[in-house]
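tool=predict chain=A
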Amino acid sequence: MKQRWWKYLLIGLAFGIADWFFLQGLASVTGRMNADNLFIVWQLLIVALIIAANWGIWLVPAIPAAIYEERQSQSLWRAGLACVIVWSAAIFSYYTFYTYLLLFDGVIHLEFMLYSNRQSPTYWEDFMPPFRRLIIEQILEWIGVAIVGGAIVGMVSALLYRRFQQRSLKKTKTTEEQHTTP
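tool=predict ok
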């Protein structure tokens, strides 16, 4: 049982970094679009698809984790906890990767935060306000979403899976009874 929780943690850590690159790709694709020539309906559809992709991608690791945990433990609460772990780990790794980029790779318009600039007399004074705003406050904000949203998504996913399994089992039994009854 304990090994499953490590899997959820590792899946979340990997997903957090993958989400960074997914969002960069999404931004790159949308940045090259020229939607000015499209009808308003098409523009609204494109915006809806971008929003759905941005938020929906978080269901990719959550739903399988919830279903897997429900199959293993038959517990909706544990399925919810599995999603909380996946999403919390993803948030942690996303912002850890963001911190790495700020310190060592450089982010456009935030080059002053590079660690190589630490010899500057005002480095830490300049560094801390954006670091608090971009990293610390965002982690605190999104970890609440991970806890509440992850629990809800995990339990709902597990419940829907359980209902689907029960319905499939009933259909299978009904079909078998029809074939065996003369």
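The chain has a mean pLDDT of 91. Residues 123-180 form the longest helix (58 residues).
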